[in-house]
Amino acid sequence: MAVLFPAASVAQSPAAQGDTAPPSDSAARPSGIDCGTFAAKDSSLDLISKFCEFALSYRHQLPDFIAQQTTTFSKAHTVLTAQVTFRKGVEHYSYLTLDGKPITDKSSLPGNVHFRSAGEFGSLLVDLFSVPGAVEFKFHKTATLGDVPVSIYEFHLPKERNTFWTLRDGTGRAWKPEFRGEVWLEQQTGRPRREEIQPIHLPANCLIGAAKTITDYAMTLVSEVGSFLLPVKSESKVCGRTSASAATMLAMQNGDVSMTGPDLPSCATNILVFHDYQKFKATARIVPAESQP
Fold it and tell me: Which of 33, 41, 119, 268 could form a disulfide with 75 if both were Cys (CB 3.0 to 4.6 A apart)?
């Protein structure tokens, strides 16, 4: 599954109720991936080997659960909520509301909601290792995140090796550019606590000038099941290009003249919070067949 970095100033339809986001990893551990090669080549990458083992099995070790997702759009002063159902390594989104009002499967976000993000439930982690040798890692420094000692590693995905992360702007054009980022790993276990990712060296004809996503993970209680490492917050910032031509194209896409000229928002930030994790419980209702005359 490609990671979509949505457009900076273009409304997109939310996932329809019942839509499914396919997992990046297959039902079984991907073949041909030897996580031990990182530590074997460079002892400073020992935690990357542990992180690799964790990431490749992450989605299959999680229980089935339901969580609430709340997204705040900074420029629009708008709140989008959804219920996330995670079953057998796949997430489904349902019961969407915008400022408390239900969204139907035919609804679109208003023009002042600029972009959305996805991939927090494992895809962004798994993709780092899904293509052996595609992503390069380098130890950066140690730090503390909250009260957890972490080691920070920089990573780099060259454009010529990028077959899985896609950037798409408001005109519908797509690129697979160069990416860089960081992973913050627990020093004791190699489990991720934070992942930062951003595309770089974007082409001049891309309406997106810059983009960055930061996702935080923490040990989180899933009621009636136990505690698991789960996403708790994701913040995405996208900046559009401010040239007159870009402003015109964005305005044409939105059909909103108020976004032309100097009023075009240069940057927009979305803050997404996951909360109220609960065990998934399937319910069924048996309806008796009508008696035959």
Answer: 268
b/e map 240-252, b = 16+ CB within 10 Å: bbeeeebbebbbe
Percentage with pLDDT > 70 across the chain: 71
Report helix, strand and coil shares of the chain as percent, to nearest 5.
Answer: 20, 40, 40
Q: Which residue has the tokens 């008796």?
A: 288
Residue pair 129/38 in contact by the 8 Å Cβ criterion: no
* Residue 134 within any structural domain of the chain: yes
What is the tally of structural domains in the chain?
1
Residue among 204, 205, 139, 195 nearest 165 (CA): 195
Q: Determine if the pTM surpasses 0.85.
A: no
Please report whether residue 289 resides in a domain.
Answer: no
> Across the chain, what does the average pLDDT equal?
77
Q: Are strands 165-168 and 3-5 parallel, antiparallel or unpaired?
A: parallel
The answer to whether 213 and 236 have CB atoms below 8 angstroms apart is yes
- The dihedral through the CA atoms of 217, 219, 220, 225 has a sign that is positive
Residue 230 in tokens? 């789960």
Tell me which residue range forms the domain holding 193: 3-279
Residue 287 in any domain: the answer is no
